[in-house]
Amino acid sequence: EKGAYLAGSTYWLPWFNDHLITFELTTTLPEKWDVVSQGKRTRHDIKNGDRITTWECVHPMEEVYLIAAEFNEYIKKIGKVDVMAFLRTPDESLANKYLETTSQYLEMYRNLIGPYPFSKFALIENFWETGYGMPSFTLLGEQVIRFPFILHSSYPHELLHNYWGNSVYVDFNSGNWCEGITAYMADHLIKEQRGQGAEYRRSTIQKFTDYVTPENDFPLNKFLSRYDAPSEAIGYGKCLMMFNMLREDVGDKHFVKSLQNFYQNYKFKAASFEDIRLAFEDVTGKDLKSFFDQWVNRTGAPSLSLTDVKVKKSGEQYRLIFTLTQNQKEQAFFLNVPIAVSFSDKMIIEKVEMVKKKQTFSLMVPEAPLQIQVDPQFQ
């Protein structure tokens, strides 16, 4: 009575040994019912009290979804994309909020990554509380869609999954990269745009510190999906921070261009961390093998402390000397550590390259420093 939900996990269609498939799906349902699937709707007729609907998907898919219920449909065209909302009870005001927000984020990600890969994006109200992102639609529970904060948190996250995970697929043999990058380019980016990026990164690192222990830790190349707090802190949080460090190392311009390069090369194909590395090397000209090795294939994280801070006058300038130590039990991580030096009326940020467990650095500064901070923005 409430609705139908069919996915690959329900084996309602033959399974083709992980081969990607295209499809055309036609359904016949009672007139008041409607159906949504991937791709483009090519037929939507009422005949003899039945509703006949066809969805055609020309892009190779991992599985076929069929969602059906007595829906109220709302639609708006944004360029070539149909933006749709399927609600279980009529609510034009709610639908319009989602249609408007969808168009804003579609435009943002088009500029950031490339053209949106599908002909539609639909919000579908589910009959139990979910937060699912499928190719060309998202399936959210009736309470979830009415929380005001969802519009600028979970919702853009699910929309972005149409790029990462639902059009560039994950090669699960070498770990799931897509949750980390989606969290970074949706949840983190929106906080960053509002001046709250450092707080978001701090909270992310805090979760890793709180939940991940030597007993439950594993490398990113073993992450498939989250099943508890530690797995989320690794697969979402640590992966998110890896992309942040990569962005810090290559710069915004190269970071965006590398992601565009990766997206163009792997749309509707399965990709790995290694493919991401090659896309970044292609754009930046840098050798990033050791960077990806330590963050993807190793467990743990660096823990830094600051000691032996001294200031010496040197002619007209001052020499700031300090020691950084990596306190974790494992071997040293190679790090570019941001150091903030405060003066009476300004602050400068320098990066130091750390390759050992304990290293002493010296910086020349123009006036007597008042304070030194290690990684104050939680990069």
Strand order of the largest sheet: 7-8-9-11-10
Mean pLDDT: 95
State the total count of DSSP E strands.
19
Rounded to an integer in angstroms, the radius of gyration calculated over CA atoms is 24 Å
Order of helices and strands: EEEEEEEEHEEEHEHHHHEHHEEEEEE
Q: SS-based structural class?
A: alpha+beta
Global morphology:
elongated
Strand content range: 25-35%
Binned, the helix content reads 25-40%
Question: What can be said about the biggest beta sheet?
Answer: 5 strands, mixed
Report low-confidence residues grouped into runs of 5 or more: none
Helix count, per DSSP? 8
The end-to-end span amounts to 50 Å
Q: Describe it for me?
A:
With 379 residues, the chain is α+β, with helices and mostly antiparallel strands. 31% of the residues lie in helices and 33% in strands. It is built from eight helices and 19 strands. A five-stranded mixed beta sheet has the order 7-8-9-11-10, with helices on one face. A three-stranded antiparallel beta sheet has the order 1-6-3, with no helix packed on it. It has a three-stranded antiparallel beta sheet with strand order 2-5-4, with no helix packed on it. The longest helix has 22 residues, at 229-250. The chain is elongated. The N and C termini lie far apart (50 Å). The model has no long low-confidence stretch (mean pLDDT 95).
Task: Give short descriptive properties of this protein.
alpha+beta, 19 strands, 33% strand, elongated, 31% helix, 3-stranded antiparallel beta sheet, single chain
